[in-house]
């Protein structure tokens, strides 16, 4: 894989803008996925051997999910590389219940977590070596028996073919936006590049950003996790833990354990 550092930087810039952070919650409203992640957190908290259940939300964004994972008997850390996102997270109601850290999986300390979560497209934003490095760090950061949960897109369903978008105007907390998207076919590594143009008519500003997402099959996910010392416990095709159908399901919901 070449160009991984520049792709990682491009992905970070996609979210490290206060105007885009302000509309993140609108585009990532709490729905069925958040219910699932909270359910897993409840399961982990119920069986943890320590005084508190220790949870890491990697790529936490504005913390819209992260704060709901916190509570009595839990220690929650939200990690994200985008300062603009964390600025929103810190001021969120109940934001003081979470420890916010700017950075990547390198901030996960060894044997420090009972549960690691990557929600949204976080797993797909980790490209090439960054993906493998993150899995190694997560594997080392989980206690024996600790769990990792995340979702990713099924490449067999070719979701990128429906991601083209002509200019569309909408009103958001950041003001009026005009957005358009142009998406490439995957390269030999399964990486799709989405070029996003965002216009702010009120100010005349224009942002042109490339967002990179890597598609991985269930077989590749299993193999990559195994190298990091993580065993796949379950792959589902939806948030209700229905067994994954590689020909039909648009996503993979992955649950893995250390050791």
TrEMBL record:
A Pfam cross-reference name: Methyltransf_25
Keyword Lyase: no
Domain Methyltransferase: 55-146
GO biological process: methylation
Keywords, in A-Z order: Methyltransferase, Transferase
Entry annotated with the keyword Amino-acid biosynthesis: no
One annotated GO molecular function: methyltransferase activity
Record-annotated membrane-spanning stretches: none
InterPro entries membership: Methyltransf_25, SAM-dependent_MTases_sf
Superkingdom in the source lineage: Bacteria
Gene3D superfamilies, per the entry: Vaccinia Virus protein VP39
Name the record gives this protein: SAM-dependent methyltransferase
Source species of the chain: Micrococcus flavus
